[in-house]
Structure to design on (322 residues):
């Protein structure tokens, strides 16, 4: 390990949208609780968002009130990964009742594809020096050695923020993705994939290196053909808030093409808040809106959808919230 920088704290999400307008920072109301428990298998609890900051403890308690009884928090750059490990170690926040974290919280860490490009370049967006990509992934490997680290991720490819035509960026992302695949196999951990505008390249890398046993397409964004291609390879898809967006018929077709024993649910909080609260802060307690859409798309009761998704989660991570 080459970098001895201290564990950093949480970070604050941008209060403006990409187009520069101010976001509505009010927290959406608590939805009706789900009839059976589910787990949010991908959230970023290291982000501060909303008019009032919610602690991890508060977010978990609100989630439990919605019957979202498990949350997997993802730290996907070095600062976030260190913070996430410190959270598990009890050194950044301790709940009044230690059983709250023990029973309802698990985590995963990685170097995000876009961050991999910065490590390869040697500087972050503000010009601060960064360790090499190899050293960063070596530290991620060390941070993963904890009983409550249940996944490596998110890794993968992103041609939205860094362009595929940029050879330097493309090579950095592919190298990083391949290193995470190797690490998932070495540690026997499930792997969460971030795929933005990179469906075919993601499949090509998985086919070349061999897909890890438990691979999850987090915030699945492809069409039905791509969903089938993932499931044929043994992968799982995780559905986030965009499934509720009006314009996303092709995403709903993709979900319909996949049996529920291959489907999980997530928030990607604080991002991607489901309808009708799109644009406002997101937190695991808002999963019921997304779960209702999953049930509707599959034409099953909310109860049956929750049971199926929770069983899939337990199968993939060997854990689902108590
Ligand atoms: Zn992602
Ligand atoms: Zn994410």
């Amino acid at each position: 390990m080459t970098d001895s920088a201290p564990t950093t704290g949480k970070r604050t999400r941008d209060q403006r949208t990409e187009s520069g307008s101010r976001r509505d920072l009010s927290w959406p109301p608590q939805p009706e609780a789900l009839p059976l428990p589910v787990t949010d298998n991908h959230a970023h609890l290291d982000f501060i968002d909303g008019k009032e900051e919610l602690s991890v403890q508060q977010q978990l308690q609100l989630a439990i009130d919605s019957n979202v009884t498990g949350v997997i928090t993802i730290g996907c750059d070095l600062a976030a990964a260190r913070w996430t490990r410190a959270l598990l170690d009890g050194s950044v926040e301790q709940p009044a009742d230690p059983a709250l974290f023990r029973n309802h919280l698990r985590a995963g860490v990685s170097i995000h594809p876009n961050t991999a490009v910065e490590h390869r370049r040697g500087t972050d967006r503000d010009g601060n020096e960064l360790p090499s990509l190899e050293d960063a992934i070596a530290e991620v490997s060390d941070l993963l050695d904890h009983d409550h680290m249940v996944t490596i991720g998110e890794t993968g490819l992103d041609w939205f923020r860094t362009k595929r035509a940029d050879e330097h960026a493309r090579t950095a992302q592919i190298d990083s993705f391949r290193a995470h695949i190797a690490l998932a196999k070495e540690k026997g951990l499930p792997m969460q994939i971030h795929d933005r505008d990179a469906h075919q390249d993601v499949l090509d890398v998985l086919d070349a290196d061999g897909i890890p046993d438990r691979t999850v397409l987090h915030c699945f964004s492809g069409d039905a053909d791509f969903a089938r291609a993932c499931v044929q390879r043994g992968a799982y898809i995780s559905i986030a808030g965009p499934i509720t967006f009006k314009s996303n018929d092709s995403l709903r077709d993709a979900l319909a093409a996949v049996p529920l024993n291959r489907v999980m649910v997530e928030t990607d909080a604080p991002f991607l808040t489901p309808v009708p609260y799109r644009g406002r802060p997101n937190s695991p307690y808002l999963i019921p809106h997304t779960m209702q859409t999953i049930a509707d798309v599959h034409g099953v009761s909310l109860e049956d959808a929750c049971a199926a998704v929770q069983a899939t989660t337990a199968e993939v991570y060997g854990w689902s919230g108590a």
Observations:
- The longest strand covers residues 149-158.
